[in-house]
Fold:
Amino acid sequence: MPAPDTGNPSPDIRLIVFDLGRVLLRIVDDFDHACRRANLPPIPGFSGDLSIHALRNTDPDAAELFNGFEIGTVTIEDYAARAAAITGSPAEHIMAILDAAIIETYPGATDLLEQLHALPVKTACLSNTNARHWQLISDPDNPSYIPLHLLDFPLGSQLVGHAKPHPAIYQHLGTLSQTPPQHILFFDDLPENIAAAKACGWHAELVSRDTDNPVPALRRSLEAYRVLSHTP
Structure:
């Protein structure tokens, strides 16, 4: 992530917003990777990086299912049953692949959240996720545990009813936090989500996918925005 392209060397950041997957959480590369982690064969029709809406399966039933699960109109049980019906795979395989999609919290991510929690700044997550993954990241015994209590506004798309890059999800957080857009800093790994945040007036930084752990880069960016003190 480069230094802030803001025209202001020290913007007054009052709310820091993190995406989860590939920002605070290590997740699979794509659906086929999740199948391999679950020790299951690939599922025809369900493939590719499903975090990117444009790459979702062209099958309208599958696309509707993924989108509904993401915005909370499809329950965990309905997702498993409908995905099984679409693919012909057992529902238990669907659930195993779903669980395999998130791997672990990045080293240093919890330390970063704890450090920010102690500062006079608010924090949030704003992630396209689903009810099952929210259960997993809320479980202290799961490798992908995120201490959501450290965040002032822990939000997933399934809780808001909208998914990025829809403007409504950004507007929801802005209204909920009562933070003017020019005081919000957002981190995400998808260019379309960054563009949508900037269109709402937020500061936004693209997190590179070409790194094993983005947390050091997050720290450098927060130092550049004067949120964290520089540590040589």
Observations:
- The longest strand covers residues 122-127.
- The beta strands are 15-18, 25-27, 102-105, 122-127, 153-156, 184-188, 203-206.
